[in-house]
Specification:
mainly alpha; 77 residues; transmembrane helix; membrane; transmembrane; 2 helices
Length: 77
């Protein structure tokens, strides 16, 4: 192997190594940024169907008129 071939092989190996390190570094930085973005995003609130049903029932409930005596107008009062 003469000096020119040896230099070409070493140069090619060096360039290939630099390219491989750059690709791996870019991949790792992208993953880190993705994790940071996921952590910064606000979590969606958990739906509570029981609480929603209570609110809907309270909204639909009939208003009971109050008499002058302060007691409710329902038959049981």
């Amino acid at each position: 192997m003469n000096a020119i071939t040896y230099a070409a092989v070493l140069g090619t190996a060096f360039v290939a190594t630099v390219v491989a390190i750059t690709v791996v570094l870019a991949y790792l930085l992208d993953r880190r940024d993705e994790r940071i973005d996921q952590a910064r995003r606000t979590a969606t609130p958990v739906r509570d169907p029981y609480h929603q049903a209570q609110q809907l029932a309270a909204h639909r409930r009939e208003r009971v008129p109050v008499h002058a005596s302060g007691r409710g107008g329902a038959p049981w009062s």
